[in-house]
């Protein structure tokens, strides 16, 4: 399942989009789309050795439904191998046996410019993960700010160029947006989520490049939609068919977009915009309400 033969991204090099002519003005796009380039990334991931669905804190979770943990681990390993094949670095955070959702490492904090805003979880079931991810980051030399307000890391904070898009409505508190702006010294753009299936910003919006995002309209309130339209007038708007399989829970290196395999239309749309879609199957982890991006915390700077 991991037999992707993708060209590795050598550190420090930028890989040009392979089919520049395919970038020619698909409908609704400006005639001159910037060429897409990959940059090497560093990710933290947590193997789902203790993954289970024992409680329900989002509408995807159904305790009692069978979960195949071995399959979850195999699918996660394939994701990790996909990143390695793309030339990225993956560091593995040890999971805690009593924390079945810890595989969703994106929630462990936001790391920007070599420092981190730690996570404070909305639900008591995940509370112990915050200090565990913070301790792991600190042991690696990353200073971590202990959060005062509820904030679920890269689940609700997405870095797009110099901006931090910040979700609220289900998990991360608006006060945490101000905290993030202060601690990470970034421009923070608040976006209110309204559909419980898209409870974290990273289930409703994918960062494709420093100037490009994809999102599903139904996840956002009217103010948030107006903001997204203003900031990203050429964004890829994804339909419910792709968003409903968590297609937007994707990870891009600027060129390759690793996304859930079931999001087939989104993959075709990405290819038409000059990206290289890289589908992976994380069906077991979807039972916890997460997919590619949820499993991936980017370590920046
Ligand atoms: N079961 C987890 C929760 O509800 C899933 C978290 C998914 N992570 C994410 N970054 N969206 O908290």
Question: Your description of this structure?
Answer:
Belongs to the DDAH family. Its EC number is 3.5.3.18. By secondary structure, the protein is α/β, with parallel strands linked by helices. The protein has a single domain, classed as L-arginine/glycine Amidinotransferase, Chain A (5-stranded Propeller). The chain is 22% helix and 21% strand. The chain is built from seven helices and 17 strands. It has helices spanning 69-85, 129-139, 174-184, 222-231, 240-243, 264-272, 283-286; strands spanning 15-16, 37-38, 42-45, 89-92, 109-112, 115-118, 144-145, 157-160, 163-168, 187-192, 205-209, 212-215, 236-237, 251-252, 256-260, 276-280, 297-298. The strands form six sheets. The protein has a three-stranded mixed β-sheet with strand order 4-3-17, with helices on one face. Strands 5-6-7 form a three-stranded mixed β-sheet, sandwiched between helices. Strands 8-9-10 form a three-stranded mixed β-sheet, sandwiched between helices. Strand 12 (212-215), helix 4 (222-231) and strand 13 (236-237) form a beta-alpha-beta unit. The longest helix has 17 residues, at 69-85. The chain is globular, with a radius of gyration of 18 Å. The two termini are 32 Å apart. The structure holds arginine.
Question: Briefly, what is this?
Answer:
With about 300 residues, the chain is an alpha/beta fold.
Number of E strands: 17
Small molecules (ligands, ions, cofactors) in the structure: arginine
Strand content: 15-25%
Relative helix content: 10-25%
User: Averaging pLDDT over every residue, what do you get?
Assistant: 92
Alpha plus pi helix count? 7
Keywords: Hydrolase
GO molecular function: dimethylargininase activity
Organism: Pseudokineococcus basanitobsidens
Enzyme class: hydrolase
């Amino acid at each position: 399942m991991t037999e992707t033969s993708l060209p590795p991204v050598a550190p420090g090099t930028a890989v040009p989009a392979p089919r520049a002519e395919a970038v020619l003005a698909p409908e609704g796009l400006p005639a001159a789309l910037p060429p897409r380039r990959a940059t090497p990334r560093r990710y933290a991931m947590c193997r789902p050795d203790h993954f289970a669905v024992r409680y329900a804190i989002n509408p995807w979770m159904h305790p009692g439904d069978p979960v195949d943990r071995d399959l979850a681990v195999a699918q996660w390993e394939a994701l990790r191998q996909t990143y390695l094949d793309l030339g990225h670095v993956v560091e593995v955070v040890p999971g805690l046996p009593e924390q079945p959702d810890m595989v969703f490492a994106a929630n462990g904090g936001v790391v920007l410019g070599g420092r981190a805003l730690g996570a404070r979880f909305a639900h008591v079931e995940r509370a112990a993960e915050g200090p565990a991810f913070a301790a792991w980051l600190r042991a690696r030399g990353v200073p971590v700010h202990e959060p005062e307000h509820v904030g679920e890391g890269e689940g609700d904070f997405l870095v797009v160029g110099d901006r931090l898009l910040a979700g609220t409505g289900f998990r991360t508190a608006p006060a945490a947006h101000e905290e993030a702006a202060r601690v990470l010294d970034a421009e923070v753009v608040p976006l209110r989520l309204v559909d419980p299936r898209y409870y974290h910003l990273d289930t409703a919006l994918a960062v494709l490049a420093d100037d490009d995002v994809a999102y599903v309209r139904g996840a956002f309130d009217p103010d948030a939609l107006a903001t997204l339209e203003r900031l990203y007038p050429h964004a890829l708007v994804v339909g419910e068919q792709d968003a409903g399989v968590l297609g937007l829970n994707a990870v891009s290196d600027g060129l390759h977009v690793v996304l859930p395999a079931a999001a087939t239309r989104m993959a075709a749309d990405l290819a038409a915009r000059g990206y290289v879609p890289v589908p992976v199957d994380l069906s077991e982890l979807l039972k916890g309400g997460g997919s590619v991006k949820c499993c991936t915390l980017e370590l920046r700077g």
